Amino acid sequence: SNGDLAGCSPERVLDSDEWKEHGAAAAELLPPICLFHGYKDKAVPVWSSSDFAQKLEDAGVKHVKLDLRRDMTHTYPVIEGPLQRHDIQLEVILPVLLGESAGKRLVAAKALPPLWPVRILDIAGHVSPF
Q: Tens digits of per-residue pLDDT, 43-70?
């Protein structure tokens, strides 16, 4: 992409000649799409997921879910969250795969102690460039 952030956007697919030709048929074949994004993401602005979700719906994709989280950074789903024993990816994916009761069971499960002190993880989230 040579530093072209717009060129890395998945929205570009929806503007391509291929999508214009085959998009309606492709949209019918897509599985449910769940986008989740944090307002505290310093690397990718939250509006990029909002815009992408809207563009997918406008392109005929039927099952698009947008989950915006107030206190989530770019790295929270893969670093700070799991180290605190909060796996947001499971929260999002299990109900899609196994039904809503899976999400309820996950919430009801016994909480395990964090792998690192929460204060250190909070500081890491604040100083992270992402």
A: 889 999 999 999 999 999 999 999 999 9
